[in-house]
Each structure stands twice: as structure tokens, then as C-alpha cells.
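Why do we bother with holo predictions? Because pocket geometry can differ from the apo form. Keep that in mind while you read this record for FE2/S2 (inorganic) cluster.
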Amino acid sequence: MTKENLFLCMGSACHQLGVYEVLPKLQSLIQAHELENVVELKGSFCLETCSHGIVMKLGDRCFVDISPQNVETIFTQDILPEIQATLARSP
Ligand code: FES
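The structure, written out:
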């Protein structure tokens, strides 16, 4: 099965907002939900939505306003359902 790429913006604006605190939390969340074999977490250059907080992208969908404080909530409420929907669509 090919893994879905989950991009985390590592650009300078997102860096300033604490992306290096978000990264280990995301890695733990991916492990906790046993997604290591279905999702590849990748750093990305600026995703061009710098005024919207830390940004992640899965397929065509962007998740904005992520912070070290809310990453767990956004992952559980928004990103996880999107991962599950993407997996359900793939053959
Ligand atoms: S630096 Fe992250 S969106 Fe631009």
C-alpha cells in the first residue's frame, strides 16, 4: 500500500510559530493511532498560507492555525477523519 503524504510546513513563518514543537507531537499522534504504515509525515517548504499559523496539508486539503497547544485537537478532529476518508477512497 502506498503511504499518504502528510506535509508539515517547515518554512520560516511556521518555524517561528513553533513547528519544532508540533513535529514530535505529530509523530506521537501518528504512532498512537497506528498510522505509521499508512501515513508518511514529511516536512515541506512554505505552503504559502503563512498568515494562518502553522500549516499542514494532506492531498488537496490544508489545515491551518495549528500550534503546539492545539495540534492534538486538530489532528483528532480534522486530520484523522481526512486520513480515514482518503484511505477509504484508495483501492
Ligand atoms: S512558512 Fe509555513 S506557510 Fe509559509
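The beta strands are 4-9, 39-44, 54-58, 61-66.
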